[in-house]
Structures are given as structure tokens and as C-alpha cells.
Specification:
By secondary structure, the chain is of the alpha+beta class. Helix content is 34%, strand content 12%. The protein has a two-stranded antiparallel ribbon. The longest helix is centred in the middle third of the chain and has 12 residues. The chain is globular and about 35 Å long. The chain starts with 16 loop residues before the first helix and ends in a 7-residue tail after the last helix.
């Protein structure tokens, strides 16, 4: 059985320069950001930060690959 993810604070920001700057600041701090597309939400993070990548796997409830 998987352990549920702990609750976290979320924000919904309108599209625009301020929202993009806020998302970029969160990514720079190692946090994942949900990005809406036409059909689904994607998760974005700094791919060079292993902790940020692990946070995406945790948000999805998946295990990171050890390859």
C-alpha cells in the first residue's frame, strides 16, 4: 500500500507576467509547478535538481527510477 502524500499549500494564479514570474521563482526554489495545457495539467520542475524531480514523482504517487 502506498503512503498518501502530505498536504501542501497550493496557489492558483492568473495567466500573465506575474503568474509566470511566480512559477519561475518556485521552480528556482526546487518546487514543482502545475502547468495547464489544452487537455491535461503537466508538472514542471528543474530537471537538474534531483530533489525537485523527486517531488514530481511524490506528487504523482510514483517511485523514481533508479537507473
Amino acid at each position: 500500500m502506498t503512503t498518501p502524500n502530505p498536504p501542501c499549500a497550493t496557489q492558483t494564479l492568473p495567466y500573465g507576467a506575474a503568474g509566470i514570474a511566480a512559477a519561475a521563482a518556485l521552480i528556482a526554489k526546487g518546487q514543482p509547478v502545475a502547468i495547464p495545457t489544452e487537455t491535461v495539467y503537466g508538472l514542471a520542475a528543474d530537471a537538474t535538481d534531483s530533489h525537485a524531480v523527486a517531488r514530481i514523482y511524490a506528487a504523482k504517487g510514483a517511485r523514481a527510477s533508479t537507473r
